[in-house]
């Protein structure tokens, strides 16, 4: 149980001295669906203790005095749990509720509006398990802020080389650090692409740089009070990664820096997906998270004591083990559970009041409360929610998730990565993208349950193929296991089963349409924004904000943004030129055409790489709009004169070999201008030598 509140001098602290923390309880994704349709992820039991209790106990033990839990989904359940479990703790825990937030960035903007944070604070998620000692790290952060003034955030990383058990694919990252002051210089998730896009300027501008691919992001951030207003000012910051990228890209403008702290001995990891749920559960059972272990007093949630024996076997009171059953290693069993004869259990967690039959094999199985498993069942690497009934002879293969009260009939077999729920989806089932997609799409094909028996039924849950970019690859890599997709394994339905018109389906869902790629839609939106900017005299700063918002909405990479913004800016004067006689087109192209949007171009075309992207974009546009070729040289000259393009980049692009007819034509058109640049440089060199 959490320690009782101290009486006396607790209120004597000055407001600015109070150590504060923000816990974002919502994940804003559907990784644990359909279980999270009826309970929040932060209350999901981890080794028979709600995940958020690990998070809050970590903060409480570390000396945090005031914690704000921000929650959107299932707020009543979270508030009830906090009132029951943490109302008498030494740490003051308050729950902040909002139903309108769609991202962590929205949550932080909402917290900023409430003006509850008054000093440096710790920012974490409600699914964090850690035993890191925070106070020394907070003091180091404050000392660095006093010394350098610019640090706005300190991010914690833990040594975890590739292949480490708590390192999953989506958390693979590469960072560059300046050793002298641990300043973060570069940050890229490996999942964003196979190629490492390391800016050349990083190595040119810094004498000493450390590159790391051996770190795990702890998702513990020690923040200055400036962080929340920065999120408020930049509404396109949807996640902490967006914030980090924004600070790194605009360091000179914003005047802020981010620093890192690397830990080696202590533990920190997020229950961010099913693979991490498995890995962290095993770490808890193996006592890597000490003192946060199943037998520890800090995490005791009931009057029942938990014993710890050899091979990390944890048993609460009133557990019944039949003769001949075997608990092999890393097993936790909750109060009132019965294990049948000849059953073998390994690396598994079983909740309270469960009934496990005879000759059952459980391996890496996570079974919550009041679950029944019949005789001769085999369950591997799967998660079973409260009240699930698995009848005799059932085989549950790796990666399955069974939601509350699902019933599986005798001798059934669940293929890998199957997700089941007890009720057919309805329009009020959930407001998550996956659930809405399931209702709209799958109910058009079949409303039949996947499994039916006398005691109930089970309906399959599938997420949208167009779901959040963060879960893009997880359907094929569930629990860290490479699994066959539905297309490879053969699905239970075919597209021909749908009786409606296939064209109507594609129109409804915006998929499979070559005319409507996300890049095309982004470009169309950018052009519309620029036209509205001229008509309504919108400031460049607001146009940049709108374009950044579109970038995140369509998931466009920065390289493509540079190219498409360039095309969008060129589209407006080119439209006017199309109706002009050829001899008037060069005359009509002038600085006035681009004066309004030059600051916009400069916002994106900042370095050699983005300038090259700009040139490639113009070259590509020449193949689509013949009118551009006629003004190509004048356009490049004008961009050079206005310092959007540098001489070195122009000559580099010009000297790049190409066999493309359009590319050759562009280089031929620009040849006289490049020659003029070279001659001007030679004359300048001669003048300097004289």
From TrEMBL:
A Pfam short name: W2
Keywords assigned: Cytoplasm, Initiation factor, Protein biosynthesis
Region Disordered, residue ranges: 488-515
Subunit record text: Component of the translation initiation factor 2B (eIF2B) complex which is a heterodecamer of two sets of five different subunits: alpha, beta, gamma, delta and epsilon. Subunits alpha, beta and delta comprise a regulatory subcomplex and subunits epsilon and gamma comprise a catalytic subcomplex. Within the complex, the hexameric regulatory complex resides at the center, with the two heterodimeric catalytic subcomplexes bound on opposite sides.
Keyword set includes Methyltransferase: no
Similarity remark: Belongs to the eIF-2B gamma/epsilon subunits family.
GO molecular function: guanyl-nucleotide exchange factor activity; translation initiation factor activity; translation initiation factor binding
Protein name in the entry: Translation initiation factor eIF2B subunit epsilon
One cellular component (GO) term of this entry: cytosol
Domain W2: 516-687
Natural source organism: Capitella teleta
InterPro entries to which the protein is assigned, alphabetical: ARM-type_fold, eIF-2B_epsilon_N, eIF2B_epsilon, LbH_EIF2B3/5, NTP_transferase_dom, Nucleotide-diphossugar_trans, Trimer_LpxA-like_sf, W2_domain
Keyword field contains Cytoplasm: yes
Comp. bias (Acidic residues): 488-507
Coarse class of the protein's main subcellular location: cytoplasm
Compartment(s): Cytoplasm, Cytosol
Source organism, top-level taxon: Eukaryota
